[in-house]
Amino acid sequence: MSERTHHEMLNSHTTLRLGGPAAELVEASSADEIVAALRKADASGSATDNAAVSAFVLAGGSNVVVADEGYPGTVVLLRNRGFSVHREGERATVRVEAGQQWDELVEATVADGLAGLECLSGIPGSAGATPIQNVGAYGQEVAETITAIRVYDRYSGETLVMRPDECLFGYRTSIFKHNNRFVVLSVDFSLTVSTLSTPIRYAELARSLGVAPGEQADLARVREAVLALRAGKGMVLDPSDPDTWSVGSFFTNPVLPASEYAALRERAGAQPPAWPGADGSVKVSAAWLIERAGFGKGHAGVGVGISTKHTLALTNRGTGTTAALLDLAREIRDGVRDRFGVVLHPEPVLVNCAL
């Protein structure tokens, strides 16, 4: 039986510790309860595209920015947890409920000798949120291993299974990110049965492990190395450390056509860290742009600031508000645009607010 409360503050349900009250908050412990809560909310509102005026779904709260005014509709808290593993030869299918804590899943797959998620260790939030952002880190992203996603379609009122080619996965995005139509209920991952990792692609991680890029390493060692790297950047949630009270990276790395990248290099008078894409585009380091536009680690706003450990993390220093956080984000975005002619875009989902 789902639990309902009214006017509960959402700041206790987000890693930023920000967010005003929800008109109604429903805790749903199963897929059936999630669907029932959404159907009830949608019956009294409208699940129209581009404007979730009746309900939105919240799980780990690690990649959302909620307005100080809160949310005027129903917030459905995903509390469906658990996962199963089906092995077949050298592959294993892991089916995980949307509300399952992500890092608990990664820890379990590493311990069970299943490769494919190890570089995604230490990421806060829930499993159901990972396809929404196409979560990625240290050379892996979930789109590489997702084989199916069970969703509730708020338009048709049906539950269906979506395949990867229907999800429109891209760099930190998917069909789910800016469309409230589909609500993730569970995710299937196809992992490799192996005590060795997938090939290490990320140079910093390879150096930490003492291997060459493209080589493999022991799964447990990879997880330990990723956790250490993330902790050093304030990217492992710590209730006692305000540097970790964030949504992780606030801005995505801009992906530029080759001509715009050439113009950026000329304007910067230097070569920004960049990664070429298969289509001729170039992904540029947002952190480099931010720092050289004058916003270094520790740059402060009103009760908020850039992390002292990582330039991409905007943090609540304990007395912040969502309005102050967005003011800081605008200051950074506009400063980078004015200095380099490049517009940064936010990675988190903005709820009842805008940048």
CATH topology of the largest domain: Uridine Diphospho-n-acetylenolpyruvylglucosamine Reductase, domain 3
Q: Taking all residues together, what is the mean pLDDT? A: 95
The share of residues in extended strands comes to: 25-35%
Distance between the termini: 37 Å
- What is the count of helical runs? 8
CATH class of the largest domain: Alpha Beta
Radius of gyration: 20 Å
How many structural domains?
Answer: 3
Low-pLDDT runs: 46-52
Envelope shape:
globular
Topology pattern, helix = H, strand = E = EEEHEEEEEHEHEEEEEHHEHEEHEEHE
Query: Main β-sheet: number of strands, strand sense, barrel status?
Result: 6 strands, antiparallel
Which architecture of the largest domain would the CATH scheme give at its second level? 2-Layer Sandwich
| Helix proportion range | 10-25%
Total number of beta strands: 20
Pfam family, one: FAD_binding_4
GO biological process, one term: cell division
Protein name: UDP-N-acetylenolpyruvoylglucosamine reductase
Pathway: Cell wall biogenesis; peptidoglycan biosynthesis
